[in-house]
């Protein structure tokens, strides 16, 4: 059995930023207009008023202050409230592949590799731009890699599901060096007209290069990985290829993203740390052995509680850093971004735990140790 290691990571975020104040001004303008246009129906109990939002509500609910987005004007336009992304001809690089390549190139450069050094590509994200051909195949072609390529999705835990798969493929000898990409264009999935979710997501792309240990220094040993699921539809996105067929029966049907925030919080705070601790037990890793945990950035209260249950001590920015305030929830890319930003200061031999959790519910965990 070959041991595997993370050789490098990389991330990229678009330069466009939407502050809470900007987002609230747009959303409240939409809500006020809706409530005015439907005042009679609302008064008669035939329609529900759209509640207003506030920057204070967003900060208290999530810890988010800003988010980086692929396209800004369409999101803030109350007549659309979605990013404006022109369609591309089929011979052009797709939007999501181009977005992924921003972080892929950073990870390749850090490792000192060319794309031809890669023999497996996994796109692990909340959604892919198309059903087929796989976005991973397009990325593989763009960088000149060989071997296999496939897309997979497990919502906000997808990157660590990809790491779990890559670890197994490398340890079994089926691959030497795997690129995991998490290009998350979450503002295309979000429903910016729903108060419960309008503020949650930002856009980001992250990448990891995982490879067989050939004895060279550097990188992070992968000590263990584990993934686990528990069915729930409390956090759900209905966008998919069946939508056109559904709309042929009900033209008014509109797929959307929705969540029962209180249920998701309660369920995931209970489930995620148990999965991480089970992985730790499998490799005889105690909380005292772990200097830092890098968590998926869902909201700050979840980060606080899950970190405390994994580490058995109160969360601090040193032992469980958060990037929510600047980037919001960037789905599966967030745990890789967090690791990339907050791992250079760790000493050789120190150990950390990644944990990501999302719709499904799916939870992924990995333990890594810094190499000399």
Task: Describe the fold and architecture.
By secondary structure, the protein is of the alpha+beta class. It has helices spanning 20-37, 39-43, 55-62, 73-76, 95-111, 135-143, 158-171, 243-249, 261-282, 300-311, 324-327, 333-341, and strands spanning 4-12, 17-19, 66-68, 120-124, 148-152, 177-185, 203-212, 220-232, 235-237, 257-259, 290-295, 351-358, 360-370. It is globular. The strands form 3 sheets. A 9-stranded mixed sheet has the order 5-4-6-7-1-8-13-12-11, sandwiched between helices. It has a two-stranded antiparallel ribbon with strand order 2-3. Strands 9-10 form a two-stranded antiparallel ribbon. β4 (120-124), α6 (135-143) and β5 form a beta-alpha-beta unit. Helices cover 35% and strands 24% of the residues. The longest helix has 22 residues, at 261-282. The chain contains 12 helices and 13 strands. α9 (261-282) packs parallel to α10 (300-311).
């Amino acid at each position: 059995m070959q041991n595997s290691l993370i050789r490098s990571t990389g991330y990229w975020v678009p330069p466009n930023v939407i502050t809470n104040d900007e987002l609230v001004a747009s959303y409240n303008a939409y809500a006020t207009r809706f409530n005015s246009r439907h005042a009679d129906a609302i008064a008669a109990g035939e329609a529900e008023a759209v509640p207003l939002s506030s920057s204070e509500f967003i900060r208290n609910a999530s810890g988010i202050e800003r988010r980086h987005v692929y396209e800004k004007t369409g999101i803030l336009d109350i007549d659309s409230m979605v990013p404006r992304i022109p369609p591309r001809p089929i011979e052009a690089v797709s939007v999501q592949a181009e977005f992924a390549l921003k972080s892929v190139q950073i990870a390749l450069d850090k490792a000192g590799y060319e794309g031809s050094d890669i023999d497996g590509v996994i796109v692990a994200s909340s959604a892919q731009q198309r059903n087929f051909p796989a976005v991973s195949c397009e990325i593989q072609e763009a960088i000149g890699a060989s071997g296999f390529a496939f897309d997979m999705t497990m919502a906000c835990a997808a990157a660590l599901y990809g790491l779990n798969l890559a670890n197994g493929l490398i340890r079994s000898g089926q691959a030497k060096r795997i690129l995991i990409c998490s290009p998350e264009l979450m503002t295309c999935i979000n429903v910016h007209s729903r108060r419960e979710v309008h503020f949650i997501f930002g856009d980001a792309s992250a990448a990891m290069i995982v490879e067989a240990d050939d004895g060279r220094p550097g990188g992070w040993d992968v000590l263990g990985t584990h993934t686990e699921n528990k069915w729930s539809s409390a956090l759900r996105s209905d966008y998919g290829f069946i939508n056109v067929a559904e709309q042929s029966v009900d033209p008014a049907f509109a797929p959307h993203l929705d969540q029962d925030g209180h249920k998701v919080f309660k369920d995931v705070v209970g489930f995620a740390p148990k999965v991480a601790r089970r992985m730790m037990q499998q490799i005889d890793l105690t909380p005292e052995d772990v200097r830092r945990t890098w968590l998926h950035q869902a909201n700050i209260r979840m980060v606080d509680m899950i970190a405390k249950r994994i580490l058995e001590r109160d969360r601090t920015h040193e032992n469980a850093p958060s990037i929510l305030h600047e980037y919001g929830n960037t789905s599966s890319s967030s745990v890789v971004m967090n690791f990339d930003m907050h791992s250079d200061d760790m000493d050789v031999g120190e150990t950390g735990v990644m944990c990501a959790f999302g719709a499904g519910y799916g939870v992924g965990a990995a333990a890594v140790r810094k190499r000399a």
